[in-house]
């Protein structure tokens, strides 16, 4: 049996103390030990973006980071961003523009899109595509997702074109 390691972190603003196997990745830890299943798992090798999370303010692949590496970190999942209202307008735009179908990619897509909008108030459609290029969607063809992110950027900027 593999020895476990103690970790201490915050998840969506709440202090968490846990023991984890050193080989468990962060996405599995969040899903299996904390029940935060909004973080999805697709490829498990850093390609699809379904497991996108925010760690200490930067987006990361939850499948490429070990849970033990999150010791001392501030981790935010889609549940946290949703419950705080931070991405309420983005979520509404996704609904309004039909930017999701099965929804499997959506948590990662929302976190990646919010990351862009925090860096750039009015990104071009090309910049939106570029920033979301690490997040795969098998359903929508991406057009509606770009529309939703663009609409959110405009609304946040007071409707400027
Ligand atoms: S599950 Fe992490 S990038 Fe695909
Ligand atoms: S909505 Fe199905 S994978 Fe994106």
Q: Strands, helices and their partners?
A:
Elements: E1 5-11, E2 14-20, H1 26-33, E3 52-55, E4 58-61, E5 74-76, H2 78-83, H3 88-96, H4 106-119, H5 125-131, H6 143-156
Parallel strand pairs: 1-5
Antiparallel strand pairs: 1-2, 3-4, 3-5
This protein binds FE2/S2 (inorganic) cluster (2 copies).
Q: Would you mind describing this structure in some detail?
A:
With 161 residues, this protein is an alpha+beta fold. 36% of the residues lie in helices and 16% in strands. The chain contains 6 helices and 5 strands. The chain has helices at residues 26-33, 78-83, 88-96, 106-119, 125-131, 143-156, and strands at residues 5-11, 14-20, 52-55, 58-61, 74-76. It has a 5-stranded mixed sheet. β3 and β4 (58-61) form a beta hairpin. It is elongated. The mean pLDDT is 97.
Short description:
With 161 residues, the protein is an alpha+beta fold. 36% of the residues lie in helices and 16% in strands. A five-stranded mixed sheet has the order 2-1-5-3-4.
